[in-house]
Amino acid sequence: MTALPETAAAEEVAEWVITEVRLCQAEEGTTYWALDLLRPDGVKILQVMPTELMESLSAEYNIPPDDIDQLLDIALHQPFLPVPRRDRELAVSSALGAARLTAAAASAQAEPEPVTLWNAPTIDDARQSLLARIEELKQTKVRVVSFAQSSAAAKARTLHRAGLAEAEAAAILAAPTDPLDLIRSTVVFDKHALARKRAEVAAARREYAAATGAA
């Protein structure tokens, strides 16, 4: 998933509004969802989400594939979470994100860090920590919502700040469905791919533990 700029803490939760989602295909054949969002300041941006991301999150955190809304919530908010120091020093070794510690990271002095997929005692612990961190984020700093979830007044304010052309604003307001419904209806989970990715996560966690002396 494309990383988004970190939003500074403010008195009010910064709301990023999803106005449109499209299913696209890159030249090399990979598919992705393109999400149009309006930042709190009204600037329109594009976020790219690989279609296999939901499958990867399901494998990483042992979340049932049919719990689409929870997977979507993670996919939309995870980019806003601060990246732990040790995770920043990981060298990516697979498309899933299975990683190897650099020598510097392995020998670095420990500092307080959140429980993550790599350092959690169990996958359940990692999932609970991630969901708690996302919930805190949504309550205090950033919330990513579908345009359909906003109130009429919030919609009007967002469109006004964005300075959209009248026809474009009217089309968004008149949209009868949730833009995220496209993801819900096109996401695909392959049981063999899920099993393979779960095995990759388990191997990466063992490698992390060995590299940090936690094994």
Explain this structure:
With 215 residues, the chain is α+β, with helices and mostly antiparallel strands. It has helices at 53-61, 68-77, 85-88, 103-107, 123-140, 152-162, 166-174, 181-186, 191-212; strands at 14-25, 31-38, 44-50, 90-92, 99-101, 142-146. Strands 3-2-1-6 form a 4-stranded mixed beta sheet. A two-stranded antiparallel sheet has the order 4-5. α1 (53-61) crosses α2 and α1 crosses α9 (191-212). Mean pLDDT is 80; it is low at 5-10 and 91-110.
Q: What tags apply to this protein structure?
A:
215 residues; four-stranded mixed β-sheet; alpha+beta
The protein's oligomeric status is single chain
Strand order of the largest sheet: 3-2-1-6
Low-confidence stretches: 5-10, 91-110
Shape: globular
Average predicted local confidence, pLDDT: 80
Order of H and E elements: EEEHHHEEHHEHHHH
